[in-house]
């Protein structure tokens, strides 16, 4: 079971996602978990952590740009920066994320894959309840893998996953 335990309405500045970008088909075959493992093995995060100007030390999954018919989306495994880094690691992209009001939902549960799978629906339900809607002018979503909330389970074996949605008032 996953539950939304809290949320914050924050004003995110314009940020820059830096990392490895995947072109992900909207089918049952999800390549994202295997790519996270691959990026840990290649040392991606060690290279990103050396760059100046990180907005947060958290590792992020950045979902963006559903091109055309919505049959696929782009996903960046990386980190967020306050400005585009001068020296982007080889194999990485930089993608600008428009700033503005954003709701971050904190989703807690024991099963990591279930928590991640439920984060969107739980956070969007809170967005609607608060009188907001998804801001389609800022077409991105963020998955926050915070240390220690996500990386270290609590005494009951639960983790907390951060899920960010750009919003506007209805």
Relevant terms:
single chain; 170 residues; alpha+beta; Multidrug-efflux Transporter 1 Regulator Bmrr, Chain A; globular; Bacterial transcription activator effector binding domain-containing protein; Reg_factor_effector_dom_sf
Outline the structure in words.
The chain is an alpha+beta fold and 170 residues long. It has a single domain (2-169), classed as Multidrug-efflux Transporter 1 Regulator Bmrr, Chain A (Alpha-Beta Barrel), CATH 3.20.80. The protein has helices spanning 32-42, 44-49, 112-129; strands spanning 2-12, 15-25, 59-64, 72-81, 93-97, 100-109, 132-134, 140-145, 159-169. Strands 1, 2, 3, 4, 5, 6, 7, 8 and 9 form a nine-stranded antiparallel β-sheet that branches.
Blueprint of the fold:
Layout: E1 2-12, E2 15-25, H1 32-42, H2 44-49, E3 59-64, E4 72-81, E5 93-97, E6 100-109, H3 112-129, E7 132-134, E8 140-145, E9 159-169
Antiparallel strand pairs: 1-6, 2-4, 2-5, 3-4, 3-8, 6-9, 7-9, 8-9
In short:
This protein has a single domain (2-169), classed as Regulatory factor, effector binding domain (Multidrug-efflux Transporter 1 Regulator Bmrr, Chain A). It is 21% helix and 43% strand. It has 3 helices and 9 strands; from the N terminus they run E-E-H-H-E-E-E-E-H-E-E-E.
